[in-house]
Design a protein that fits this description.
With 391 residues, the protein is of the alpha+beta class. The protein is built from twelve helices and ten strands. The protein has helices at 2-29, 32-40, 63-71, 87-90, 99-108, 206-221, 226-238, 242-264, 272-292, 298-322, 329-359, 365-390; strands at residues 43-49, 54-61, 110-114, 117-118, 123-127, 143-150, 157-162, 168-175, 182-187, 195-196.
């Protein structure tokens, strides 16, 4: 009897042991299905911080899951951040069905903050990227909402929040130029972990912009602006009296400030092949007039003003090459101009200390200094004119 029970138990034990791998496999597979569904999420968010001090947020939508969410009455009754201007034009007509209202809610309840300061999008659009032509088995691309806006100056970290009870979804942050995304999982109505911004994408502070462009304006005159230096010296050589000198310098300053601003704002433009030879010819004219006249005339002031307009276009060409920070455009423009003025006044001060102060009362000052120096300046300006026109 005991032997029979032992034999039966052994058979049941063997069957149980044989079934154990299947039970273990079933236990492992049971949570895998919801885990895969969790990994997809209704949304997939990518935040890129760009080197032009702007951000771009791409929100890819799982249309089937979102449609079910809407049919079940999901979504908030009202928005928190206010309406997004121009939203209707941002959604293609083919995509304005049931999903359209969800996109509006999604855009208005998305929030990207920098060090706790909200930066609303300035531009948004909706598209569906084209399917890859070389992969017929690839899943259809998702409908995507794009948001773009500015990064505030001096920012250290970015945080994303979506005030929408839509379950879990993945979000990735990236500084432009980085290959990898910093990935997180979020639940609706929760903040992401702060993401550190690279120095390459953070706009400089106003003080830093002011220092930088003040220095750029000054160095554009000293030592880099040889043609501008010669023009200012031509103004200086006509008369050492304070009033004629200040009248010409003021006229020149007002003129180049005007065209610099108009050009930077896109209201006035001339090609460099016209501006550069004209600047050289302005040097020739002022220098030759120093030889032909001794006194300041109204026509001289008008001509200096006109030449200042040309020089302002030259300064604008330099600023276009340097670029202006979007967040501190006006600060950069004003301080660059102040730097230019500081450079010009330095040239006049140096010329007065080296030449005017020790020799201004000498009877031979005009014959030995003004005339030879003006002829030399005219010759250099003429050479530059020919070079810039024909070469």
């Amino acid at each position: 009897m005991t032997g029979m029970r032992r034999t039966a138990w052994s058979g049941e034990g063997r069957r149980a042991l044989a079934a154990l791998p299947a039970l273990v496999a079933l236990a492992l597979l049971a949570p895998a299905r919801p885990a895969r569904a969790h990994e997809m999420g209704k949304l997939q968010v990518t935040v890129e911080l760009r080197r032009d001090a702007t951000y771009r947020v791409d929100i890819a939508i799982d249309e089937q899951r979102v449609s079910g969410f809407l049919a079940a009455g999901g979504g908030p009754a009202e928005t928190r951040y206010g309406p997004i201007a121009g939203f209707a034009a941002a959604v293609p007509p083919a995509e304005r069905g049931q999903i359209g209202p969800f996109f509006r809610t999604l855009a208005e309840r998305s929030a990207l903050s920098f060090d706790g300061r909200l930066s609303p999008p300035e531009r948004l659009w909706v598209d569906r990227p084209a399917s890859p032509a070389d992969d017929p088995f690839a899943p259809p691309p998702k409908l995507t909402l794009h948001l773009a806006g500015p990064i505030p100056p001096g920012t250290k970290a970015a945080t994303w929040r979506l005030d929408l009870l839509i379950g879990s979804f993945p979000i990735g942050f990236r500084n432009e130029g980085d290959a990898a995304l910093s990935r997180q999982w979020l639940d609706g109505e929760s903040d992401s972990r702060p993401f550190a911004l690279s120095e390459k994408v953070v706009p400089p502070s106003r003080a830093r912009v002011a220092r930088q462009y003040l220095g750029l304006g000054f160095t554009h005159i000293l030592p880099k602006g040889t043609d501008h230096i010669l023009f200012v010296l031509g103004i200086f050589l006509l008369s050492l009296r304070l009033k004629p000198m200040l009248t010409q310098v003021t006229s020149f300053t007002v003129a180049h400030t005007l065209t610099l601003a108009l050009s930077i704002y896109g209201l006035l433009s001339l090609p460099p092949r016209v501006v550069e030879p004209a600047i050289a010819l302005s040097i020739v004219y002022v220098a030759v007039e120093n030889v032909l006249t001794r006194e300041l005339k109204p026509s001289r002031v008008a001509l200096v003003f006109g030449f200042g307009l040309l020089h302002g276009l030259g300064f604008a060409g330099v600023l276009h090459e340097l670029g202006l920070p979007r967040s501190e455009f006006l600060t950069a423009l004003l301080t660059f101009n102040l730097g230019v003025e500081a450079g010009q006044l330095t040239v006049i001060a140096a010329a007065f200390l080296l030449v005017g102060l020790p020799f201004r009362h000498k009877p031979w000052y005009r014959q030995r200094i003004v005339v030879p120096a003006s002829l030399a300046i005219a010759a250099i300006g003429l050479y530059w004119s020919i070079q810039r026109i024909f070469f």
